[in-house]
Amino acid sequence: MNDISTTTTVNTLTSLFARYGLCEGIVSDNGTQFTYEEFAQLCARNEIRHILTVLDHPQSNSQAERYVDIVKSALKQGLHNGEKIFDVLSKFFLVCHRLTPHTTTNISPAELFLKRQLRTVLNLLRSNATDTSSIVRKHYQLNFDRHTKERQFQQGSQVLVRDFRNNPNKVE
Q: Which domain of life is it from (predicted)?
């Protein structure tokens, strides 16, 4: 959003609601865009509970604050590497955040939201590694089987048996 006015905020939220459905509640700070009547009408019309955080006490919304800390950390790392801020967020941070499983649910936000796991470059690498591993395993199996002979046993044929229960070195 280029503009954080109440009208822009309401229009953006309306667009999000049209795309993803209505939410049950919104937690926000006491910014003017969230305290004007237009925003209050949007919440009332759609039966959305609006919760304001305490003034000068951002810790009251610990989840949002933790997310802000993560974003700041990602921005600092990107700036140290000389990258542009948008590139850092779009290429690395958002993908990592959306694909990282939550510690409580053990499910990623993307999977909770879309009801499926996202396909990423890592999935492609894992798939290629699995394919390569199975090819190598088949190669080893063929190489091992090359030296074996298929034996046919008849009833009454003499065979050597090793009894591992009493004396493992004794062959009968």
A: Eukaryota
